[in-house]
């Protein structure tokens, strides 16, 4: 990065902070702070919903996922359009009619106080953990770009996010997200276009290479439960994951209940339902094309350059250097085999094509084995190499191949996206803590100004918790997967509570409370011991909770003794 | 004791008429919008399947 890039990056960051602060100057009451001023249009809601979900992690980590594993991750989103239709038709009208601040207020009215607190508590637990992971993402960008230590970068970016979020309100979050997403998509499209221009092969040949290396694997109808992404896991597990995320997660509910009418909120959700799969496909495809690009260009044996340089300094026995040379030789051989493979394809020589393709695949396996060996060595005793190396693929490509100015713009856009999604998350954590715990249990009759101040203090507290989690977590998963795994473990039970509230009218508060507690324990135990795709827990959790609540209610009898509704 | 459900407004409570209109050209009801979105989903899956079959 040069001076121009840094000017663009830091100029954008400061402009965003100033914009958010400027928008908060009218926030004098709780309603305005938590819901905006309820005159937000469908496009702003739609983009805000997408931006809250598609944070910097989506744009950094998903291309890395595409690079390593191809397009199969797109199946994770197959259930989302169906879930969003469900939310728009069932959840949304009810939330608007009840005029609630948080989704969990509905549980208090339908069941009892303890069920409301359980739902809100599970949200705080899982979203608090996820919030730590989303602070981690922009820190990766800056640590790679600036050569800073990852832990120091986490503290710097985390504190900036916390300050901005505490000052900002719901309306500022929604409106600024619109502009951030425009910058993000502009940057991503520009990056894709430049990638295609620089690609040494034609786009058709690039798809051939990607397909031959099993990267064009968008749909699999396999029934193997161990396989992480399949059509079935995506539709069923993805449906429940999305339903619980969009229907019961306060960070999303807070975005769409701020619409000026039910119509605006519904259109915002349908906008996401129609565009989510094409958007994720595009981002994954970017990673796949970067993979093909690196088959014809020198490829780093380890993409996290900061960690690599640090490891090489301490490589006294020269093992890393030797592995790098071996990797470079394997890479060069693979490039030759790919060229033979493509030439044979163009000449219609199927036998030669098949042979060269098989040899290229074997060379790819050898390269990957060497990368694994390097990864183990670099990550050993190196705190700066936390996380999955695939998360560094796109940023490394941007730094090495995009023109100056655009590099700064893309990094600014990533960072801004992280700020905005983090802002929405912390805003929701602060809101839920205030509305569902503080106002409900500790101080019932204070003024709006008091609750507004309390929300800001709780937002600050959650920001610090997320910062601590980001600092001490050692993530072995690709970031985008880590977020989905945390969500899948906790979301299912929360969803079940809401589904029972809507459709099983005879189930009371005591039955659902204990069923939810038991099924959450069950999911945690199964996750620890079973090796099945995490998406299935979005189905197992609700199924167990619904079944247990029916059994417990039957044991309790038809008399539904609950605490007074709140 | 008053049932907790009694606090929830009934489903047939009066609603804003504007909410029932989609305001979109060609879509008079929300059911039509939902079907359109479902159609987009099916089309997306079919295109992805075709891509997978062609290049695998």
Describe this structure as you would to a colleague.
The complex is a heterodimer of chains A (566) and B (56). Chain A is mainly α and 566 residues long. Helices cover 77% and strands 0% of the residues of chain A. Chain A is globular and about 75 Å long. Chain B has a domain of 33 residues. Chain B contains 2 helices and no strands. Classes of the chains: A mainly alpha (566), B mainly alpha (56). The interface between A and B is large, with 46 and 34 residues.
Short account of what is shown:
The complex is a heterodimer of chains A (566) and B (56). Chain A is mainly α and 566 residues long. Chain A folds into two domains: 3-294 and 396-556, Sodium/glucose cotransporter (Up-down Bundle); 302-387.
The arrangement of helices and strands of chain B along the chain is: HH
Let me know the largest β-sheet of chain B. none
Classification by helices and strands of chain A = mainly alpha
Most extensive chain-chain interface:
A-B, 46 and 34 residues
Helix-strand blueprint:
The complex is a heterodimer of chains A (566) and B (56).
Chain A: H1 3-23, H2 30-35, H3 42-53, H4 56-69, H5 80-98, H6 103-110, H7 113-146, H8 150-167, H9 170-198, H10 203-212, H11 231-248, H12 250-256, H13 262-296, H14 305-313, H15 319-347, H16 350-379, H17 393-401, H18 406-442, H19 448-472, H20 479-503, H21 509-529, H22 537-556
Helix pairs in contact in A: 1-9, 1-18, 3-9, 3-12, 3-13, 4-7, 4-13, 4-18, 5-11, 5-13, 6-7, 7-8, 7-18, 7-19, 7-20, 7-21, 8-18, 8-19, 9-13, 9-18, 10-13, 11-20, 11-22, 12-18, 15-16, 18-19, 20-21, 20-22, 21-22
Chain B: H1 17-20, H2 30-55
């Amino acid at each position: 990065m040069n001076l121009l890039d840094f000017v663009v990056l830091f100029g954008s960051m400061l402009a965003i902070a100033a914009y958010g602060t400027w928008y908060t100057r009218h926030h004098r009451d709780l309603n305005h702070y938590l819901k905006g001023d309820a005159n937000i249009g469908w496009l702003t809601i739609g983009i805000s919903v997408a931006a809250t979900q598609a944070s910097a992690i989506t744009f950094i980590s998903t291309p890395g996922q595409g690079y390593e594993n191809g397009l199969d991750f797109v199946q994770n989103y197959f259930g989302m359009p169906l879930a969003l239709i469900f939310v728009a038709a069932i959840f949304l009208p009810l939330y608007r009619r009840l005029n609630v601040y948080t989704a969990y207020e509905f549980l208090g009215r339908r069941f009892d106080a303890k069920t409301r607190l359980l739902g809100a508590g599970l949200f705080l637990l899982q979203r608090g953990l996820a919030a730590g992971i989303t602070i981690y993402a922009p820190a990766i960008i800056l640590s790679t770009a600036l050569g800073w230590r990852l832990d120091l970068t986490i503290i710097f970016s985390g504190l900036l996010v916390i300050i901005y979020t505490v000052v900002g309100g719901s309306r500022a979050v929604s409106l600024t997200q619109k502009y951030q997403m425009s910058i993000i998509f502009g940057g991503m499209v520009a990056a894709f276009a430049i990638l295609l221009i620089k690609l040494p092969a034609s786009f058709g040949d690039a798809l051939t290479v990607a397909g031959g290396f099993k990267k064009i694997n968008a749909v699999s109808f396999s029934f193997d439960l161990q396989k992480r992404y399949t059509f079935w896991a995506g539709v069923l597990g993805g449906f429940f994951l999305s339903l619980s995320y969009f229907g019961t997660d306060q960070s999303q509910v807070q975005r769409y209940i701020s619409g000026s009418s039910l119509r605006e909120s519904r259109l915002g959700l349908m906008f996401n339902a129609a565009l989510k799969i094409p958007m994720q496909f595009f981002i994954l495809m970017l990673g796949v094309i970067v993979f093909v690009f690196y088959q014809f260009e020198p490829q780093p044996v380890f993409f996290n350059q900061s960690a690599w340089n640090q490891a090489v300094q301490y490589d006294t026995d020269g093992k890393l250097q030797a592995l790098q040379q071996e990797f470079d030789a394997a890479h060069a051989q693979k490039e030759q085999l790919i060229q033979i493979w493509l030439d044979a394809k163009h000449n219609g020589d199927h036998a030669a094509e098949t042979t060269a393709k098989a040899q290229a695949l074997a060379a790819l396996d050898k390269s990957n084995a060497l990368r694994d060996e390097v990864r183990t060595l670099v990550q050993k005793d190196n705190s700066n190499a936390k996380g999955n190396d695939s998360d560094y693929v796109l940023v490394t490509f941007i730094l090495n191949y995009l023109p100056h100015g655009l590099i700064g713009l893309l990094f600014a856009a990533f960072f801004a996206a992280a700020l905005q999604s983090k802002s929405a998350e912390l805003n929701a954590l602060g809101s839920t803590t205030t509305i569902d715990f503080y106002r409900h249990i500790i101080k019932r009759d204070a003024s709006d100004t008091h609750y507004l101040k309390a929300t800001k203090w709780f937002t600050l507290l959650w920001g610090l918790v997320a910062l601590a989690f980001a600092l001490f977590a050692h993530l072995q998963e690709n970031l985008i997967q880590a977020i989905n795994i945390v969500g899948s473990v906790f979301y299912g039970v929360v969803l079940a509570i809401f589904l029972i509230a809507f459709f099983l009218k005879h189930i009371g508060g005591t039955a659902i409370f204990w069923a939810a507690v038991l099924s959450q324990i069950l999911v945690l135990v199964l996750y620890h011991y079973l090796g099945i795709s995490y998406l299935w827990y979005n189905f197992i959790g609700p199924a167990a909770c619904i079944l247990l609540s029916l059994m417990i209610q039957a044991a309790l009898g038809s008399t539904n003794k609950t605490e007074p509704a709140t | 004791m008053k049932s907790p459900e009694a606090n929830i407004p009934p489903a047939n409570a009066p609603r804003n008429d504007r909410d029932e209109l989609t305001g979109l050209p060609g879509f008079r009801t929300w059911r039509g919008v939902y079907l359109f979105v479902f159609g987009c989903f099916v089309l997306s899956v079919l295109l992805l399947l075709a891509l997978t079959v062609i290049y695998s």
